[in-house]
Design a protein that fits this description.
The chain has helices at residues 2-19, 48-54, 71-80, 96-109, 123-134, 273-286, 296-314, and strands at 30-31, 43-44, 61-64, 85-88, 112-115, 140-148, 181-188, 191-193, 196-198, 203-210, 215-221, 228-235, 238-243, 252-258, 264-270. With 323 residues, it is of the alpha/beta class. It has an eight-stranded mixed β-sheet with strand order 7-10-11-6-12-13-14-15. Strands 3-4-5 form a three-stranded parallel β-sheet, sandwiched between helices. It has a two-stranded parallel ribbon with strand order 1-2. Helix 3 runs parallel beside helix 4 (96-109). Mean pLDDT is 87; it is low at 159-176.
Length: 323
């Protein structure tokens, strides 16, 4: 279950039940997490095998909220128990080796994997996509993404082993397709608390070039004193500045439009993206022969981009084949 399962998935599933009571079976949600005590809003089991006995795999959706470096092994265990419909937290993998392992397991067992890409489906993202597609403000020239969220209390302890799963390079922009991008530059900083230094867990920056000529800049700071999820789209004839909700305490997005000459408009609107994402995912899984989830190729490309970004950050030279 993990923190994401407890803090995000379970509350969002409760909202889905309220909006579409017939979509989920009227039974308690089953949770398995050997590192977390039982929670009030789920029926806790002691093993995945116990979960499979309580939840028929052919009629069950699994939410896999483990860290990505153990995801392939968990997918293989779940598939062996009969589960096929699985929602996984992002990123899909931390490197190309992990991505290849997941691809093999997915093909072997015929898994229908959906990555938790709820920001792609948010109300704010839909408005931004409409602005880009409609060219109301002319051609898109640049995208700037800022994600600031203090993570001091969740940094690893000095004696705890570290792995590449904790390299916090930011994800690609929610308004673009990574398949049309290349990494121009990337960097990361350590997180420092007193005498303790957590490598690569401070700030990360990523610069991307689109085939269309658009440039994307992404900046994520885990040492920031404030929380912020901001995206700015620069057009020929205007600038759109969007603010995504920052916590589970508020689900309101904001969008400001600035025209040449300083004319500006502002609007705020509800944007509870994760329950909406889960509702659409469960509706797809409920069909007799669900179509493949459309964002899976995007998530595969995102892992490739982040792998390249981490290679640049680490100063590892690119390996090219000789033909």
């Amino acid at each position: 279950m993990g923190r994401a399962g407890h803090r995000l998935h379970l509350p969002s599933l409760a909202k889905v039940r309220d909006v579409a009571p017939g979509l989920l079976a009227p039974v308690p949600i089953v949770a398995f997490d050997p590192f977390r005590p039982p929670v009030a809003d789920a029926a806790t089991v002691d093993s995945l095998e116990d979960a499979a006995r309580r939840c028929p795999p052919d009629r069950t959706v699994v939410h896999l909220c483990t860290p990505p470096h153990v995801r392939a092994a968990m997918l293989d265990r779940l598939a062996g128990l009969g589960y096929r419909k699985i929602i996984v937290e992002k990123p899909l993998a931390v490197d190309l080796v992990g991505l290849a392992a997941i691809a093999r397991i997915r093909r072997r067992w015929g898994l229908d994997i959906t990555v938790a890409t709820h920001w792609l489906d948010s109300a704010l993202t839909r408005r931004l996509r409409t602005a880009v597609a409609g060219r109301r403000f002319g051609e898109l020239r640049g995208i700037r993404v800022v994600q600031n969220k203090p993570r001091f209390t969740r940094a690893p302890a000095p004696t705890r082993p570290r792995s590449t799963s904790r390299c916090r390079t930011p994800s690609p922009s929610p308004s673009t397709s990574p398949g049309l991008l290349r990494v121009v530059d990337a960097s990361w900083d350590d997180l420092v608390i007193g005498d303790h230094r957590a490598p690569r867990l401070g700030r990360a920056r990523l610069r991307l070039a689109h085939r269309t000529g658009v440039r994307t800049e992404i900046d994520s700071d885990l040492t920031s004193p404030v929380r912020e999820r901001r995206i700015t789209l620069d057009f020929d004839d205007g600038v759109l500045i969007g603010h995504y909700p920052c916590s589970d305490a508020d689900h309101t997005a904001q969008l400001r439009t600035v025209r040449p000459g300083g004319e500006a408009t502002w609007t705020a609107f509800d944007d509870d993206a994760f329950p909406a994402f889960l509702g659409r995912t469960y509706e797809r899984y409920a069909t007799t022969a669900p179509a493949p989830h459309g964002t899976l190729p995007l998530q595969v490309d995102a892992v490739r981009l982040l792998t390249e970004a981490k290679r640049l950050c680490a100063g590892v030279p690119e390996v090219r084949g000789v033909g």
